[in-house]
Design goal:
heterodimer, A: Heat Shock Protein 90, 12 helices, B: Rossmann fold, ATP binding (chain A), histidine kinase (chain A), phosphoprotein (chain A)
Chain lengths: 465, 195
């Protein structure tokens, strides 16, 4: 069950519990009923209007509780069942649920409550609900407004002048009104209940209006903030695109002097062909390799979105051919599962990512002898690259930080693994690191299987010299 | 405007129910402003049929009139021996009845036996209905139908919804009737029943 489903069932359950409490509330507070009856009789016999007012307040409180549970429970059940707060039939469902619950209440308690009062309460609530923002504190605001509306409508039940319209037909209200008729010829309750009705009705209307205005202001401010953020982002993007264009142009222009160096290097090599200058020949070979690598890097920047199918073997040969192991006694053992399908990658970027992992492994050995194992296998619809070295490993506390830009334990730039992660994720893959300090480090790269028919770049830009 | 439709529907339903609640009556009844001669004697037993609080009002009015009366809302027919007249204040109150150990059927039976016993012993029975249109439910009418045929005098409110029905009952049993507009108006006709 999802979190959302849990919230829905919690709402429905708590709403149902509140409805049941509302229906059974008169049984829970039987003492209140006795208090009201006894005080009405006492106010008659003592001709005490003050006692009648206090009794009226107790009456209002009792029925506020009852109908609060019913109305609030109903909104929770409605939202639990209809989920969407802007469901077209939400308010109808709510109104029907409230009226059905009140019908059950009337049937069980035989208090003869008129439906006119409840329909008017619903009309006011449904009207105000349109202005209550359906946000974080919706239920808190709704409950406060509901409480005041119920107070207002419970005082309406006690206005004797409105009895003729069918309001206040329940047993307690009738008893209070008849008593008031005897004590003050209805002057007391007509005045007091009317004033309190108006006061308690004005409060929720004002509150709703203020909440609505406040919400509008907040929304306007949020919109302004969003616009400002968008504008800022657009400015940054514009600056970035200009920088990017300039970098791209600069990188493109680098190709020309690089071709010159490459040409001149070849020329020197040709001129030295007949001389026994093996050391210079060796330097020129290494220079040629570096020029080739620079060329590839330029291509990578210029054509970073271009992907192509490539065999795993070809990729790893390409990576290892560029590795400089100079005088280190490191054994690299590559194992590729038979019949492994081609992978669909940007050859240069992915090679650099793999190269970064291997260079990290080599650097971790710090000039000592060691072994690096590269194992490529296919598991279901993925190809798994496993790089294992027997270096000093990574501290457990560092495992979470290694992906962060700038994190390094070797005074390097610290962008290596961050770059690797970005490249792998750009290929819809995942990367994980597992390490035991003093024993080993293992890096797993999982790439989705290349499916035939995927876009393939016809021309291998990377082969350009 | 569509979002206000549910509120509008509830408001319209409330308006539709108002005329039903108001009700109307066309019947004309010949009534007494007060009785020409006394029909009852003190000491008075004031009791309730339905356990509404109006019984206490009757007790207060009797005190105002210096009539010797006891208010015993749950009195039985066996309690009549010490009284010369009975005043039954009719009005069904669910909460009032809940304060007693009786249910409605038992209350109906108690009221019936009380008036039958009074009638059998020649004790005057005055039925008072203070609730008028406020307690016009079927249970109150069951009580009225049970006690009015055995009463000597009926005092009620002029604004009641089922006036035709009331008219028919009092006419059938030849019971003098006085209708009042305000509760305090009862003092004159009630006093005339004793003095």
């Amino acid at each position: 069950m999802s979190l959302n489903d849990n919230q829905i069932s919690t709402k429905t359950l708590s709403g149902t519990i509140l409805l049941i409490i509302g229906i059974l509330f008169p049984n829970i507070v039987e003492d209140w009923t006795t208090y009201i009856i006894e005080n009405i009789e006492a106010s008659i016999l003592l001709k005490d209007g003050g006692k009648l007012v206090i009794t009226s307040i107790v009456y209002m409180t009792k029925y506020c509780f009852i109908f609060f549970f019913i109305f609030f429970g109903a909104i929770l059940v409605t939202d639990g069942m209809l989920v969407k707060k802007d469901h077209p039939y939400r308010l109808y469902f709510y109104a029907v649920l409230v009226l059905v619950t009140i019908a059950i209440y009337n049937y069980l308690h035989l208090e003869n409550f008129s439906y006119i009062g409840h329909l008017l309460t619903l009309a006011i609530l449904l009207c105000l609900q349109n202005y209550i923002p359906k946000q974080k504190y919706y239920y808190v605001i709704y409950s406060i407004i509901l409480l005041f509306v119920l107070m207002a409508m419970n005082w309406v039940q006690l206005i004797p002048a409105l009895s003729v319209l069918g309001l206040g037909t329940d047993d307690m209200a009738v008893s209070l009104k008849i008593t008031d008729h005897y004590l003050s010829n209805n002057y007391l309750l007509n005045t007091l209940a009317s004033i309190l009705f108006v006061v308690f009705l004005v409060i929720p209307i004002t509150l709703t209006f203020l909440v609505h205005l406040l919400n509008k202001q907040i929304m306007a401010m949020e919109k302004i903030q969003e616009s400002e953020s968008a504008l800022k982002a657009a400015r940054i993007a514009l600056v970035e695109s200009k920088v990017y264009e300039e970098v791209n142009s600069l990188v493109h222009d680098l190709k020309t002097p690089l071709s010159t160096i490459e040409g001149l290097s070849s020329l020197i090599k040709m001129r030295l062909q007949h001389k026994a200058e093996t050391s210079i020949d060796n330097y020129l070979d290494r220079m040629g390799g570096s020029i080739q690598k620079m060329n590839d890097m330029i291509s990578e920047i210029l054509y970073e979105d271009i992907k192509q199918p490539i065999s795993v073997k070809e990729l790893l040969e390409y990576v290892t051919s560029h590795l400089i192991l100079a005088e280190q006694n490191i054994e690299i053992d590559i194992s590729i599962e038979d019949n492994i399908p081609n992978i669909y990658v940007n050859k240069i970027r992915f090679s650099r990512a793999v190269s970064n992992i291997l260079e990290n492994a080599i650097a971790s050995l710090a000039g000592k002898a060691g072994k690096i194992t590269v194992d490529v296998t296919r598991i279901e619809e993925s190809i798994i690259f496993k790089f294992l070295d027997n270096g000093p490993g990574i501290e457990a506390s560092h495992l979470q930080d290694i992906w962060e830009d700038g994190f390094s334990t070797r005074n390097s730039t610290g962008i290596g693994l961050s770059f690797v992660k970005t490249v792998v994720e750009n290929h819809q893959g995942t990367i994980q690191v597992d390490s035991s300090p003093g024993s080993y480090t293992q890096v797993y790269i999982t790439l989705p299987l290349y499916e035939k028919g995927e876009k393939v770049d016809e021309y291998n830009y990377l082969s350009r010299g | 405007m569509k979002k206000f439709l549910p509120a509008f529907v509830c408001f319209c339903l409330a308006l539709i129910l108002v005329p039903i609640s108001i009700g109307s009556t066309t019947s004309k009844i010949n009534t007494y402003p007060n009785l020409p001669a006394p029909i009852a004697q003190e000491r008075i037993l004031i009791t309730s049929a339905g356990q509404a609080v109006e019984g206490a009002i009757m007790q207060s009015i009797a005190e105002n009139l210096n009539l010797e009366a006891d208010y015993r809302p749950r009195a039985l027919d066996t309690d009549l021996y010490e009284y010369k007249s009975v005043v039954i204040v009719v009005g069904y109150s669910k909460n009032g009845l809940a304060q007693t150990v009786r249910n409605f059927q038992e209350e109906l039976s108690r009221s019936k036996h009380l008036v039958q016993e009074a009638e059998a012993n020649g004790i005057s029975v005055i039925v008072v209905d203070f609730s008028g249109s406020l307690r016009n439910d079927s249970t109150t009418w069951k009580l009225l139908e049970e006690v009015i045929p055995h009463c000597t005098y009926y005092i009620g409110f002029s604004h009641t919804k089922k006036m035709d029905k009331l008219h028919a009952i009092v006419k059938e049993h030849h019971i003098p009737i006085t209708l009042i507009d305000q509760i305090m108006d009862i003092e004159v006709p009630f006093n005339s029943a004793y003095r």
